[in-house]
Amino acid sequence: MRDLSFIRAEIDRMRVQVGRQRREIVQLQRAGVATEAAKALLERMLMTLDDLRDQRERLKLENSDGVPRRRAARHG
Fold first, then answer.
1. Are 45 and 14 in contact (CB under 8 A)?
2. Which end of the chain has fewer beta carbons closer than 10 Å to its terminal beta carbon, N or C?
3. What stretch or stretches form a coiled coil here (predicted)?
4. Distance of alpha carbon 73 from alpha carbon 62, whole angstroms
5. Could you give the C-alpha distances from 3 to 6, 26, 46, in angstroms and in order?
6. What is the C-alpha to C-alpha distance for residues 72 and 74, in angstroms, rounded to an integer?
7. Rounded Cα distance, 76 and 74, in Å
8. Strand, coil or helix: what is 15?
9. Residue 40 in 3-state DSSP?
């Protein structure tokens, strides 16, 4: 199984790719080109991103003792 740092890096990489795909769709629309295939690819990318986020949450729970933690507030 992949480790948490790998999953986080993959999520970051996918976010960049999703942004590029969205910009490409806008360019295609401006050029009057059909965007169905590009939109389908974007949808698959978003589903992959959701899966990665689920994996990240599972790994975070597995690596902790199962008790959700809150970050300490910074003062000063």
1. yes
2. C
3. 11-62
4. 24
5. 5, 35, 21
6. 6
7. 7
8. helix
9. helix
What are 23's two structure tokens?
Answer: 């910009």
Q: How far apart are CA 61 and CA 17, in angstroms?
A: 27
Q: What b/e readout covers 36-68, taking b as 16+ CB neighbours within 10 angstroms?
A: eebeeebeebeeebeebeebbeebeeeeeeeee
Spatial separation of the C-alpha atoms in residues 6 and 9, rounded to whole Å: 5
**CA atoms of 37 and 49, how far apart (whole Å):** 18
The first and second tokens of residue 54, run together, are 């689920």
Per-residue pLDDT in tens (0 to 9) along the chain, 76 residues: 578 999 999 999 999 999 999 999 999 999 999 999 999 999 999 999 999 999 999 999 988 765 655 666 666 5
11-32: string of b/e by CB count within 10 Å (b at 16+)?
eeebeeeeeebeeebeeeeeee
